[in-house]
Amino acid sequence: MLAVLRSQKKINPQSQEKIMPRAIKHLLIGGLIIMTMGVSTATTANETDLKLTIVNPKNLYDPSPNGYSTAVIVPPGARVAYISGQGGQDGTGALSPDFAVQVKQAYANLRTALDALGARPDQVAKLTVFVVDHDMSKLGVLTKNVKEMFGEALPAQTLIPVPKLAIDPMLFEVEAVVILE
User: Fold this and answer.
1) pLDDT digits (tens, 9 = 90+) for 138-156
2) Confidence of residue 72 (pLDDT cuts 50, 70, 90)
3) Which stretches of 8-98 are DSSP H helices?
4) Which of 10, 38, 42, 136 is deepest in the core (most CB within 10 A)?
5) 127: Cα separation from own chain's centroid
6) Sign of CA dihedral 122, 128, 131, 135
7) Residue 21 buriedness (CB in 10 A; 0-12 / 13-18 / 19+)
8) What predicted TM-score, i.e. pTM, was given to this entire model?
């Protein structure tokens, strides 16, 4: 804009500072108006609008027997909550040395966190689980607990083997991404 005005001899270098800020203000205001025109001010959703869509493509291995789904689609307009890693500590902070007991307690703790959000297990879109010294013998315990909590509405899930967690006797941790109604 300034180059055009200068080439037409309609602007001198001294007035450049006055026009430039005004031009930027007009561009910014115009851009904000254009950007907000497409944003709905009132959105409503009913329970069916906020249902997760579980995707297990036929040409991929079916992970549902192992307690998870390949992908989960979160509906438009959903609010998202993130639940920090829940370990196997009971209400007093005590940890059992037994892996299966810690996993069961961690999922009970996750359920308590969901309840505090007013959410249900079928609103969990994604789990990330951390397992100390993971081996195949632990999969049965993990799958059993996931299926007990989530039934057929299995969230997407990633299992990450780790050498250690935040507290030495901790053997398992689960975090969740949840959609809220």
Assistant:
1) 999 999 999 999 999 999 9
2) confident
3) 16-37
4) 10
5) 9
6) positive
7) exposed
8) 0.67
